[in-house]
């Protein structure tokens, strides 16, 4: 039986890896199309940035230097080769490699997101488990109201409230983040709260659905308490829905963190993407979007594989 389970997991992992490669190829292709069909001429922007009186000959020379006058298939092949070797082009704004700009911005964003996801895991499991154990009680009803409010609250507005409360009125934290772990606590909380509220409701509903299963009736007949049943088997079988949601939000934060980062003056990936959009830097935009898309696909693939390993029922359902 263990051999069959291992073989099933192995086939599933192989299937997901193949799907991952195909989707990544599609993402890279769309990123290339973003550069080509965006309607912005990078050569003209580079020349105009240095001189507003640039001639068409100068623009054409830069266009030839960048290979923008090459046939579509040659540019596509060069782009695929460049992405495979870590070359995402040269940013128009600072004339630095895009990959270097992303490497400089990514660590602080990763730190904030990791901290935010730690809050999400901790509070989602605790709140949803207690809500199920005390279903329709005071705690469950209060948690429901708080979650509804938290889902409706924009993260940037919450960031402003937290900044005003705990950095201005009560100066526990700095107004401008200095890169330390302490200075990233408020941004991580601002990112985490809406996700906690959504994940708590999803996990609670999933757990309640699992409580209708036959094995739960059998466990109750054997005299197990609600806490033992919830934390013993039910929570593990209810995790796939929460894991998938967790992975999607975790990956999405890389691209949507700009508003929170701008409130706390954090030079992260979100700010870099926003500044690239403001300056119409097609290489910076496509590079940042490509990284966010790859992370999104990667997180979802890992979440799917992890759900299969944690929950046998999910594996039987999906394979």
Automatic annotation (TrEMBL):
Alphabetized InterPro entries for the sequence: BPD_transp_1_N (IPR045621), MetI-like (IPR000515), MetI-like_sf (IPR035906)
CDD domains membership: TM_PBP2
Annotated signal peptide: none
Membrane topology of this protein: Multi-pass membrane protein
Protein location: Cell membrane
UniProt keyword annotations, A-Z: Cell membrane, Membrane, Transmembrane, Transmembrane helix, Transport
Domain spans labelled ABC transmembrane type-1: 106-307
Highest taxon above the source species: Bacteria
Residues annotated as transmembrane: 17-37, 104-133, 145-172, 184-203, 238-260, 280-299
Family: Belongs to the binding-protein-dependent transport system permease family.
UniProt protein name: ABC transporter permease
UniProt source species: Brotonthovivens ammoniilytica
Species lineage: Bacteria, Bacillati, Bacillota, Clostridia, Lachnospirales
